[in-house]
Structures are given as C-alpha cells and as structure tokens.
Anaerobic sulfite reductase subunit A
Amino acid sequence: MGYKVDFKQMNHIFEQLSDEYDIYAPKRFKKQGRYSDTDIVRYDRVENIEDVVFDQKSDYPAKEVLSPITQPLFYFTEDEYRESKVNDKKILIFMRPCDVHAMERQNRVYLQNGGFEDFYYKRLQEKVKIVLMECCTGWDTCFCVSMGTNKTDEYSIGVRCLDNELLVEVKDDEFNSYFEDAANDDFKVEFIEKNQIEVKIPEIKDKEVLAKLKEHPMWQSFNSRCISCGACTIACSTCTCFTTTDIMYNENMNIGERKRTSASCQIDGFSDMAGGHSFRPTAGDRMRYKILHKFHDYKARFKDYHMCVGCGRCTSRCPEYISVTKTVEKMAAAIEEIEREGK
Ligand code: SF4
Ligand code: SF4
C-alpha cells in the first residue's frame, strides 16, 4: 500500500510507533564535525521526522546501531558474571539501499561465520525492521551501482521525502494500521541507476596472479600517504573488526566489565602477535590487506559478491584524500601488468 503524509501526521505516527519501537535514523550533530563550525551526520535515536537527515549522506553508517563503536558486553565479579542488558523495544532503522546490503554482509560475519553466532549482535539484529530511504541521485563518492547494491527488496516501509511531506510505501502489513488516516498514493520506491563514479572490479584469475599482486610496488606507495589513522574503517559500512578491553573498577582485578570497541586493520599494531611479530608492518601492507579483503577475499570465501557496498564513506572521511575507487583502479592496472608479463 502507498500513502502520502505531511510531517505533522508522520510525527503522530512516530509517537505511536515509539510504544513498540526505538527509531534510529541519520541525525545532524551541530558543530561536531571534523573541522571547526562543521556538523556531523550519524545514526542516533530520533523522535521527529524533522530530525531525520534526508538530503545528505550520513558521515557514519547505519551499522552503528547494531555494532556501536563501543559496547559493554558483560560485568564480572570474583565469582559470577552478568551480560549487559538491552531494552525490550524493537528497532526501526532508516537506511539507504547500500546500508541494507551492508547489514546483510554484517549479518553474515556476525551470525553465519564458522558456525558461531555473536550473541550481542544477534539480540539487536533480530529486532530490526527497515525503513528504506529512497536514494535516486547519490553523492560524488558513491559507486553502489558498480557494486550491485543500489537496489533492494528488503524493507518494511519505503519513503521519499518531499518538502514537508513523505510518500510512503508499506510492504510489511504490520505497519499499514499506522497509516489508516493517511491519503492513499501509488508511490513505489525508485532506485539510482547510474552513479557519478563507475568502477570495474578486476578479477584475480588464479593464486599466482594474487601472489604477485601482493608483492606489487603499488601498495608501498601508500607508505608515505596513508597516516594509518583508521578513519576509513570506522566510517566503513561493512567493517566488523573489534577488540575487547577489561575495565577494572578498583584495585581488585576481579571486578569490572568487558567492553568491545571497533578496531581498524589500518592502524599500526593491529596484526601484532605475542613475541613481537607483525604481519603487516607498513601502511602499504595494511592498505593491501583492506583492499583485497573488500574486493577479493570476502567474495573468494563466500562465493557470491564483494564485501564493499560502494557507499564511498571511506573516501569521504580520509584526511589524506585517498580514494577507494582510485585504489581499485590502480589495482586493476597492476593486475593487467602482471598478466601481460606472464604471457
Ligand atoms: S570500503 Fe569504502 S566504499 Fe566500500 S563499504 Fe567500506 S566505506 Fe563503503
Ligand atoms: S586510508 Fe586514509 S583514512 Fe584510511 S587509514 Fe589511511 S589515511 Fe586514514
């Protein structure tokens, strides 16, 4: 069913929904951007439709709702432990198509990887329903069409934001009753068909080419450019790595809490082992690892599609202006060179 509602009606619907749902959406945080007097747009709970930022890509992805940057896991004393609690409400998240695909990739890593389920992720993920934000124009760093993540059917409600009203497509019958007083409309969500950037992801045809690519000098060109800050991975819709820390409340080392915090493969020390060995000591090594993970290794393991969803947030957040799409193009050129030399 399709509907048209003005913001006042939508706020009334938000109020009704909030009995059952916590609603999350991209929200503007004034003067919290990375430069003075700039804002940041990131996911948070919203109570009004006016709080939802439709006209800008969020700086940080929707994954923050399910895998926050920092999260308490459990509390312990000398002889027992207790898991952290979450509230009983279901979760409604406003997402763009690339974020929906990113959640699918996160589900796979947290829930279907090696036969283990991440309890802390699962207890949030199983409560999620999606409000799809129509996204027909994209932004200058987006390349979702190239990654095949520009379209999705996986949503309960789809919305297009006009000046002071919303066009709404309800796919999940559970939500039709909220729109009983709204005018009918034949709205259906549309999808972007072409981004400003097009990227062809190169195929790595065998292990020999892969081994030579890993040794290619292109990676070391990042040693002088990448400052290993990790901003690209924190902003990435699909990165899932985390580390855990025990925080003791006092001098008794047996009383405290365990937290997990997002970690970045781009930061020096990420791959350090006991005994001092590091697998990826240079920024170039770490860049190679990240790019191959997003554009080769994940697909090689799961046999279907690449991990990257083409949201372009890593390019937008990099303080050194390192573009993920330009890096993939460099990798494609290196593969061509390796194949030419091998003939
Ligand atoms: S690698 Fe970059 S473009 Fe791809 S999902 Fe992560 S942030 Fe988005
Ligand atoms: S690529 Fe850019 S954002 Fe990522 S670690 Fe290097 S400098 Fe930081």
Notes: The longest strand covers residues 21-29. Residues 283-302 form the longest helix (20 residues). Residues 299 and 321 are 27 Å apart (CA to CA). The chain is about 30% helix and 20% strand.
